[in-house]
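Incident log, structure service

09:12 report received: a user says their structure output differs between two submissions of the same chain.
09:20 pulled the input from the user's history:
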Amino acid sequence: MTLDNQEQVESSAGLYFSKLSRFEEFELNENDFIFIPGLEFHIISAPGFIKKSQSFFNWLIKQYSNGVTICSVCTGTFLLAESGLLDNRTCTTHWKYFSEFTDRFPNVELMNKRIFVVDDRLYSSAGVSSGIDLSLYILEQLYGPKFATDIAKEVVVYFRRSEADPQLSVFLQYRNHMDTRIHDAQDYITKHIHTSFTIEDIATEIHTSARNLTRLFKKTTGITIGAYLEKLRIDKAIHLLAEGNKISYVANQCGLKSTNQLRTLLKKHQGVLPENVDSL
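09:34 re-ran on a clean worker, output below:
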């Protein structure tokens, strides 16, 4: 269909498929974000494409120096790397192109087991769906976990977390990986946080040995199972106490044997406690 030059095509989200302006017309600042979408690999690997895109790379460098945050989705990381901004930094991209990326950009550290990577103001994601995860992460950083969660529910996006996860921050920090078994282990811990369970129970759930689970959990998340459980407990405790629940109820819901045990845990994490906890 051929559109008349005067006709403007607007999407339901308010974005136009017409009325487009060239990137050079925009001078951005530290409150702005640039998202570089993924392209078909044959396009970004074509001999003349990079040469023709040099003005775009120069523009990216200038915007980054202005304080802009730059995010790449999927193979968009190749374009970000071509600008030179990723030199001596970390990033990720689509798993199909790991070899091509490392061969092409030896000065960039590729994180091949991460759904997205944040290095200063340069964000990269592994694919389209992980680009959504990255977007939700950014919303959480800007407007808080409730806002990000509400957005995820509104657009029916799986948040890579179970319903019972107490806080988005812990989830994002330790679930930014792609190991299904460890995600299942984390789901089990969150679901049973109010009960008494052992590492053997978790290992049985994901069909491995307790020894292998302990090793794999630390390798994948960078934290031990015990430390992870403690962080979940303190987050859950803070949430429940902020709602005005009695400390005995909170201790029970966090899987602790006594209120003294909860008090000890709260004192250990004094720096993150809400004001109303000090008097407990």
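09:41 both user submissions now match this output. Likely a transient worker issue. Closing.
09:42 reviewer note: The CA atoms of residues 184 and 225 lie 13 Å apart. The first strand starts at residue 33 and ends at 36.
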